[in-house]
Amino acid sequence: MELKKLTDTFAVSPQVHVADLPALREMGIRAIICNRPDGEGADQPTFTEIEQAAGQFGIEAHYLPVETGKVSDQDAERFRGYLETLPRPLLAYCRSGMRSATLWALASAPAMPLVEILAAGKRAGVDLSGLTRRIGSPRASADDQHDVVIIGAGAAGVATASSLLARAPDLDIAIIDPADVHYYQPGWTMVGAGVFHPETTARPMGGVLPRNVRWIKAAVAAFEPAANAVILEGCRVVTYRQLVVCPGLKLDWNAIDGLAQTLGRNGVTSNYRYDLAPYTWERVQQLKGGRALFTQPPMPIKCAGAPQKAMYLSCDHWRRSSRLDQIEVEFFNAGAALFGVADYVPALMKYVESYGIDLNFGMNLTAVDGEAKQATFARALPGGGSETFTTGFDMLHVVPPQKAPDFIRVSPLADAAGWVDVDPGSLRHKAYENVYALGDVSSTSNAKTAAAARKQAPVVAHNVLAALGVKRGEASYDGYGSCPLTVERGKIVLAEFLYGGKVAPTFPTWLIDGKHPSRLAWLMKERILPPLYWKGMLKGREWFVQPQVTD
């Protein structure tokens, strides 16, 4: 029989029969709970039959019958008692396993966050999203109803809110985000190279949000798209007419064994965190010789060029200070190519060769021993299976694996990979017509960059207003993304492309030829893009990104 494991020691299942008990004993099950009332089905054994047969195999059996759709708080309390006292592994069963899973969720709620309960259900193949309102007994308030609710106050969220207000100044918008600080994350590469000061990339959230937007400073726990509702931590409910989802992605530092314990120490750093980018520059300045490793995890990741940007700028500093010959530089890329758009690879390879960088493809960082200064990588073998490789380092720049936030991955909005499942053109959800997503969390195949969010925000703003009857026609996103590859201090290879890797330069080639390093592109990255971000994109000014609309 098939068990659905909600934890390592607890599972649910459909009806258990006497013939199943030997197999359950083989699986190690030590106790079972029957949540199905006797006589519910014509082919259903009574609990007494199961209890007597279970005793012969040394399995405890307990009876907590619950009618379908009538799981009470008292039932959950009794079930919690069983969870706390019965031996493990423990199995609960009913007709399908759903009542047992519901009891487990309600019984676990006092000690387990809602998002973890939903995640456990999703892993087991049990949809527990219908319990989101019940857990904690929330009450919806008229003050929590809005025309548009935006999840996330990062680049995508603030830009979308500003683009909406530029078109409809009286629109009722709420942004949900628990963060106190808004970061200009594209600047962290420059911080890691000593070009920007870290504080120039951060501003108080309250000073960045549009004045006419209501800021709900809270974390999202779950979604109820069929009810047009968002459930916050603490089980507060916010309802909407249109929902825009853009909370960014999750940096999974714990996916690499030992990494979290050594970040910011022992020469282990990353430009993907505000507080660590200055440490990158510190290590680059202090390294006189030895081995410097730079890593890139499997795609998709935020700004796929950032891992090698850090490497090129570090090499440039070492060469300018006459130390590059004493430093062995290696790039470990989990992918199969230096850059996803082949047109830009020749220019990058010239710098790889000039700096003497050793390229290693198909190598994924799996463990770090900071004290021993050892990094372990895994590589897939052609015939199947994998092998590991451990090497030493004096400096290690790590880019962690990345995935959608937990509350997104367990929600009804997610696709099989965990990203918000949207149409690549309209950015509208494929199943829920009043839900949109943009930025890093969407399922679109474009590069996850701030430039992509800047192009997507006006598209979403127009389509949301069209759905509300304020505008007409549909805007479409073409997959535009941009990656200013900082190949040396003072020069950039400006990669710009659409869906499918089609090159799409903004400027004529006589001004900036993206396939070759450019001084002007560097000046744009250093001097123009930061104010364009703070004073343009976040203010709803859509220079160069006004959407194309079709009737």
UniProtKB/TrEMBL annotation:
Domain Beta-lactamase hydrolase-like protein phosphatase-like: 3-109
FAD/NAD(P)-binding domain location: 146-261
Superkingdom of origin organism: Bacteria
Coiled coil spans: none
Family annotation (SUPFAM superfamilies): (Phosphotyrosine protein) phosphatases II, FAD/NAD(P)-binding domain
The protein's name in its UniProt record: Sulfide:quinone oxidoreductase
Species this chain originates from: Paraburkholderia unamae
